[in-house]
Structure formats: C-alpha cells, structure tokens
Amino acid sequence: MQYVETHGARIPIVGFGSMRLKEEAGTRAIEAAIRNGYRHIDTAAFYGNEREVGEAIRASGVKREEIFLTTKVRQDNLEADKFARSVDNSLKLLGLPNVDLLLIHWPNAQVPMEESIGALNKAKREGLAKHIGVANYTVALLDAAVKATKEPLVTNQIEVHPFLDQTKVIAATRGHGMSITAYCPLARGKVPGEPALERIGKAHGKTASQVALRWLVQQGIMIIPGSGTPARQQENLDVLDFSLTPAEMTEIAGLKRPNSRVVNPPQHPDWDV
Fold it and tell me: What is the pLDDT of residues 83-126, one digit of tens each?
C-alpha cells in the first residue's frame, strides 16, 4: 500500500467508500473489503451505516489501529451544539471512542465558518478525532476555513474523476498544505466503456476503471471507490502495480468536459467551475 502523509496523518491512498452499504449485507460487504486488504474506510452520519462499519471492523479480526477510519458531520448539524451531538452519536453507532478523521460533509452558508470550524477543532481537542478536514469546499471556502481553524486541516474530500475539471480547487487545497480525497472516482459508472480509458487499460492489462483510479493515485490523490462485490473491491485495490506514461496521463486529463459533475445536491456551494 502507498500512503499520503499530511500534518501527521498517514492515510492509505486507496480507501473504501461504504456509502449505500447497509444492514447485514452491508456489514458483510464492508468486512469483505477489510479482509481484501482495505485499511482506509470512509463513512458518514448521512450514510446511515456507521453501525455496520463498526460491526464490520470488529468482525474482520483486523486490529483497530491498523484501520484509518473517516466519518463526517452533515451540513444541517454544523452549529456547535448539534455538531457535538452528531459526533457523539456517530461514535456511539461505530462503537468506538474516536475516529481517525472527522470531516464537515458539506458547507453551510447559514452557519458562521468560525462556529463550524470551531466545533470541528473542539472534537479534535477532546480526542474524538485524531485528525480533521472538510469535504466539498471550494477555493473561497478553503481560504475561510484555513483562516478560521486553529488545528491543521488534513484533507478536502471532493468529487474527482477524469471527466471533471477540478484544477482550481485541487491547486488551492494543495496550496494550503492539504491532501485531496477523491469521491466518485469512477463517475458513478461513466468510466467503463470510455474509449480512451478502455484502450489505455488494454495496453496495461487493466480495466478502464483501474486506469481512471491509477490516474488519480499517480497524482497523489486518495481514492475511495466502493463496491459490495468482493471481486470488484479487489479490482479497485489493484491499481498500485502499474504506471501510466506521461502521455497517457495527459490524454486522460484531456477527457474533462462540461456538466460532468455527478454529485450536485441542493445544498452545494457555488462551485469553482
């Protein structure tokens, strides 16, 4: 496994996204991912599966300290009191005293940045999270968050895949000394079948999906693809044993196109592009 190291956090570059994996079948799928070798697990209060994630970690037999666990606080819980209750509830469901990384899931313009980031800082100071960060923050929001925080922000978790131009926010995130975590790295099923990715994959004995994931990893971007199928979980994990050429990296970067965002809920901020 390769790791991304930021502000003292050492995070496996290939993680597992647990969204949509719920109930007993979800627990089994998450447990299978851990047994397959994943040591970076991503969940959120909004996913409604923190209990399943905690159960899967315990059932896997893998030591807790070997797993880097992330959860998130939703945008309607960013006021200080609500934030604290959300974190306490997440830890209760997970059955754990803390998480490795706590993120603000979505920004909320109705809550002052000083309050939301202050609540995030407080969770870290109290030992409820070893590291903190944000998700879905734009360039302007990152600037404000960094100004408001007293603790280092480790990552900005954003949608990144070959079809979406996130150049500005990636540069801003790195400019603040933060890492990038890519969610929906396969554009929710739009990657398989893309001619250039399929062709490059054949040249390496890999799938189009593996090429898209490798393109991100090769840029030092963490990925959190998810699947309930063990075979697909393994496929997504097997992206560290080959490299793309500079020409291939450039070609994949050229696949960006307008209106390619696959996650754009009503509460989204004013995107940079």
Answer: 999 999 999 999 999 999 999 999 999 999 999 999 999 999 99
Task: Please tell me the pTM assigned to this model.
Answer: 0.97
| Domains and their CATH numbers in the chain | 10-253 (3.20.20.100)
The first and second tokens of residue 67, run together, are: 């797993």
Distance, CA of 202 to CA of 197 (rounded, Å): 9
**Three-state secondary structure of 72-96:** EECHHHCCHHHHHHHHHHHHHHHCC
Question: Which residues have a catalytic role annotated?
Answer: 47
CB 156 within 8 A of CB 142: yes
For the chain, the residue count is 273
C-alpha distances (whole Å) from 72 to each of 109, 178, 254 are 17, 17, 32
